[in-house]
Each structure stands twice: as C-alpha cells, then as structure tokens.
Amino acid sequence: MSDAPATLLDLKDVNVFYGAIHALRGVSLEVRQGEVVTLIGANGAGKTTTLAAICGLLKPRSGEIRYGGESIVGAAAHTLVGRGLVMAPEGRGIFPALTVQENLLLGAYSRRDKPGIARDLQRGFDIFPRLAERRSQKGGTLSGGEQQMLAIARALMAQPRLLLLDEPSLGLAPLVVQTIFATVDAINREGVTILLVEQNAHVALKHSHRAYVLESGQIQFSGASAALRNDPRVKAAYLGEGT
Known about the structure:
This protein is of the alpha/beta class. Helices cover 36% and strands 27% of the residues. It has one domain: 3-Layer(aba) Sandwich (Rossmann fold), CATH 3.40.50.300. It has a six-stranded mixed sheet with strand order 6-7-8-3-9-10, with helices on both faces. Strands 2-1-4-5 form a four-stranded antiparallel sheet, covered by helices on one side.
C-alpha cells in the first residue's frame, strides 16, 4: 500500500481559449493533499488562466479537472467555494468601501456556523495582527501589503481545503513579501493545501514542495522545487542566473 498523499487536484490535458486565442495548451498538473505546489512563468504565460479554469471562472474547451476525485468542469465558482476550493485573486479583490472586518465576514458568506465564523475571524486577526489594529478601517485605505493580508485572511474565512493564491507578492516591498510567505508556510503547516501562482520564481521555489513551469500556455518543466532551483534552464530563464 502506498503512503503517498492522495491527489486533491488533478488537471489532464486542459485546453482553454479566449475566442481564437489558445491560452492553455494541454496543461496537466496535480496537487497532492498537504502540498504547496507553485506554478511559475512569465507574464502572459497562462498562470492566472489556469487558476480561473480550476475555480470555475473559465470553462475549458477540452480536458479534465478533478477535485477531491470528482470532475468540476462546468461547476459554478460559488459551489466550489462551498466545497473548500477557494481563491485569493491577483490584485487582492477586496471591497474598498467596506471595513476590514466586513471584508473578512464576506469571506464566510456560504457559512451558517456563527461560533465557527467568530472563531475564524479571531484567527485571521491572530495571523495578521495588523488587520486587528485596523478592523474598523475601510479596506481601500490599507497599504498594498495590508490589502494582501486581508485577501488571504478573507479566503481563510471560507475554510479552504485547497487555497489558490494568485500573485501574492505582486507590487509588495521585500520585507512585506517575507511576512506574507511566512504566513503561507504557517497556513500550510496547519493542513491547508496550496496552489501558488507567482512571477517571483525565487520566492515561489523557496516556499513550495513541487513546481511547474508554464510557457506560452504549456507546461515546460516540472519537479521538486529544490531540484528546479538548481536546474540550469530554470536558473537562466527565471532566476536571472547564467548557465
């Protein structure tokens, strides 16, 4: 009997089009229970499109996407949230006119367990003390780093089994990026499986177990993150190091 973790997410030969543009070309990848898996690549490589197809915002023209052993192609995004597949989107997607606490409570919109919601709200404040200090402040007045903290804490309010993180370091200062990824590590240690999309390959490979490299809508390389960090092709193309 194998002791390998069960596969939580499985994409096989997924093709996505925007009109005549073939955005994803036969993408196959898997995420096993308890892992942090990263998808790296240049701008326009298809990383966000991959996440959108997974979480029900785009329907593939062909291919299979299975979550928890069941096909989710064509499933509505809100039903997937209820099943624990939750995304913190690129650009944070917070509600600027609502307070920090109101934004967080919106993350629990599909839940009815008031004691659990209150407990998870406090957990979000414990993870990000800066949000606790600003709980009554409007989201639009927060710094970029604080907004990213809010986006992640809001996603956690939905009790994710699989958390999709889209470019969490985008536009943030290095010190803030360190804080965000220390939190990603802590969330993973608590048992949340994570699929991370990142342009910052250095950070992504440091904070993940396995990685896929996407170029022009196709997976070019995959393997253990530590091994890819030492792969001459990856170093030359994504880590700014010569061969």
